[in-house]
């Protein structure tokens, strides 16, 4: 990383660090921008040239089991241990479509390959394409469109067979 840019992966790593540790605040500053991540009041990003502040309030994130999943199957004694979960790599807002007027990236029953974009997670006003890490068939979508997601929260179940 040079002194004038910060990679999205580095921002994601900072967010993960703050969310997993007992640190309440992390500040990173260069001559071009400043990023301040606080666990108790949300995330603030201030680019130095425009002195513009973008703040997000902490999301009231419900546990994945309490959310109403899209295309949900009846709650039965279904064995999900054979499925692989595609998880959110960050805290943000889940979007199943690239734009509201476009179709979903994937639906239940669709085949995916490793590297295929399956959704978008918006974090800090950045739209991050989430790619499948496994090849297989989507058997369940675990979150609803435009809902908040947590770091490492399962988003999809994939049958790798």
What does this protein structure show overall?
The chain has 161 residues and is mostly beta strands. It has two domains: 8-56, no CATH class; 81-159, RNA polymerase II/Efflux pump adaptor protein, barrel-sandwich hybrid domain (OB fold (Dihydrolipoamide Acetyltransferase, E2P)). The chain is 8% helix and 35% strand. It contains one helix and twelve strands; from the N terminus they run αββββββββββββ. The strands form three sheets. Strands 1-2-3-4 form a four-stranded antiparallel sheet, covered by helices on one side. Strands 5-12-10-7 form a four-stranded antiparallel sheet, with no helix packed on it. β1 (25-29) and β2 form a beta hairpin. The longest helix is centred in the first third of the chain and has 13 residues, at 8-20. The model is unreliable at 41-76 (pLDDT under 50).
Secondary-structure blueprint:
Elements: H1 8-20, E1 25-29, E2 33-38, E3 42-47, E4 54-56, E5 84-87, E6 92-95, E7 111-112, E8 117-123, E9 126-131, E10 136-141, E11 148-149, E12 154-159
Antiparallel strand pairs: 1-2, 2-3, 3-4, 5-12, 6-8, 6-11, 7-10, 8-9, 10-12
